[in-house]
Amino acid sequence: MLTTFTRLYPVWIVASSLVGLLWPSSLLWFSGQWVVAALTVVMLGMGLTLTIDDFRRLARMPGAVALGFVLQYTVMPLSGWFAARACGLEPELAVGLILVASCPGGTASNLITYLARANVALSVVMTAASTLLAFIMTPFWVEQLAGHYVPVDAWGLCKSTLQVVVAPVLLGVLLNWKFPRQVGAVAAFSPAVSVVAIIFIAGGIVAQSAESVVAHAGRVALAVLLLHLLGFLLGYVVSRLLRLPVVSARTISIEVGMQNGGMAAMLARKHFAAQAMAGVPAVFSSVLQTLIGSLLAAWWSRRPVGEPGNETSATAGAARGVETDST
Length: 327
Fold this sequence. Notes:
The chain is an all-alpha fold. It has a single domain (about 1-305), classed as Na+/H+ antiporter like fold (Up-down Bundle). The protein contains 17 helices and no strands. The two termini are about 20 Å apart.
């Protein structure tokens, strides 16, 4: 039952967004520290599903991990800037889209990779790597690409990412290492708890600027769709041009194309409060990236390819705790 609830999280996000849109007063209270606390719970849940062995896998696939990291923090930020310009987004929406594009990979990518019968171990390691270094990369790209729209507090973004994203993940890994049995019992519930947290984040963001969401929904959806399509496409094409095996290319495509929208929403509410709509692209991102990823997974799962070292079954636990982002 919990698994079904978790896998239907795009439905719950849409539902909570509609509640925030139609009855904003019911979710206006969920802002500020509530959003920060919710994302902290999500990231702690991610850490609880990671093990030391996940990081040891870095030694087995350094080239693929390095390429995925580079693509994550070049293709996506630049695509976000391009999509914002191409779709003529207002400054605060453009900032929100660039913020989504500059965030690390989302943990829902682990589940999509599993469904696509790609390399789950590689996906888990890439998500962890991009998340742990997000406190450097996310502020850098937001300052470079969004600084001409609004003032950007890069140091503030760095501190928030360390406190709310990196620290909970590391704490989760530590707890899983020291108390594996106890964490194993708790981790079974963490995906569902994370989904609930994301539901409130999405609904709260929409409630804060309900009228603006309606007025700009078309262009925001188009820009977000363009961002993620570019991520999936370029992640795969560049990987294949560099002669990576097909399974690795598929994994990198999914990892690059999917972002941590929950983190983007939190940073938007905390550091761009004057731009009321800055968090809106994160909500659209949560739904559209999962839709694209699911369709891609269904296509690729019917066209499996073999690859030595593909550890899909070993980490079918990706389904273990795939904390949805907006993840």
